[in-house]
Amino acid sequence: MDPKIWGNLPEELQERILSRLPLKTILSFRSTCRRFNNLLSSPSFLSLLPPQLNPPHLLLLSHPNFPSHLLHSYDSSSHHWRSLSFSASHLTTSSLGLLCFQPSPTTLTVLNFLTRSSKSIDSPNCSSSLTLIPSPSRYKILSTSADGAASLYDSRSANWTTFAAYSGRARISTAHSGAFFRGAVYFVTTPEPFGVVGFDVDRGRWVAATAAGMPEEEGLVFVRLVGDGVGRRLMMVGGVGRDGISRSVRVWEMEEGSWREIGRLPEMMVRKFGSVCYHNYGHVYGFWHEGGVCVGCYTWPEVLMFRPVLPDKWSGTCPTQPLDRLDQLCIAEVVLRVSESIFIILMAFLNVIF
Q1: What PANTHER family does its record include (predicted)?
Q2: Per-residue pLDDT reduced to its tens digit, 319-331
């Protein structure tokens, strides 16, 4: 093809053409120039690859019974745990192969999992929630506090920018990282009734998640937002019930400005889930993994997986925890706290240059 024609093609079309090439050819292209290297490492391109070419996902586990610099990764394809050692400690958030540590209250360390290159960053707010937003050749970190104060770090300029605080009456829930979706990072607002607001990363302002509001249910007892990591899908996991007790667990997906229900947890699973959580829904967490939503509880070592494309949408998994070096007295604490710091790493790493 004439280079002039190729150069004038939209980047999205270039990605679609390149994604149809053999994997060996794709890998060889990465060494030709930095532009190709960035393009072929971008989340949008990697999502176009056939399933057999997609590398496996890993669950990255951190808990107090291991040294703060030692993490364990679980490969769901081989069902094995592996120990990983890092120079930084106290992992706070991750996205698409980039890890963000907070070794001190005022310092962040962003590390590229593939190259092990890292960068130290001054943190503006030690009590805030951090959300890592990667792109092909840069990354951003959104720092938010419960009162709606927002600061954004851009790796390209190496500076923090502070924006106007959220002006709504509700408070931003900082117990979990935000979910990135179509250029904005979304958070749940508290107290009940719950709501969802987003921070537009490009425009630097707070926006409403949807004009339609929250799903019209009898009562949402808890809500968690889950994004797919590349900004294309946003899902909500919620418990529905009354008097503070969840009688049903449902999954909704954001479609065309409104929430559409796409699944419900079977009743027997709901009963077990409620019993192990002791109806303390602050222990519930959710994350995206291998094309679906995972739901768990800090007091329960199992993880429920919801995959919309499968006939049997719900399944439960319980990978053997890496307890080789823990004595019997530590096991109870591990079971209680093992899920507090689960992070998802897509083994399709970004070539971020520090």
Answers
A1: BNACNNG10540D PROTEIN, F-BOX DOMAIN-CONTAINING PROTEIN
A2: 444 444 332 222 2
